[in-house]
Predict the structure.
Amino acid sequence: QVQLVESGGGLVQVGGSLRLSCAASGRSFNGGAMGWFRQAPGKAREFIAAISWRPGTTYYSDSMKGRFSISRDNANYTVYLQMNSLKPEDTAVYYCAARAVRPVDTLMYYRSETYDYWGQGTQVTVSS
């Protein structure tokens, strides 16, 4: 059974940082990709960043590039999202997603329907 378990969310002040982790288990994602999305109350799910497991190419939402950074730990099947200079509008539930097969088109990395597996989400709240 595939599991994606997020951790690292919480309450942080404006300008602060958090690092989210997503540990994958249950199957190999060596040939695929993983991504981070978020969803704020009353809003649609929003793409943040994605990474191809090999060779580790990264993709970012233009609006969050520069503040957020995605990385992976091959040995532990874990993906991270480093978030800096957090703003109140970053408050949302953050989701990790995975796809076992590498997307054939770059645009697929940005789309939630590309991913086959999802974590339960972790709440990030930025207070002003």
The chain has a mean pLDDT of 95. The radius of gyration is 14 Å. The longest strand covers residues 18-25.
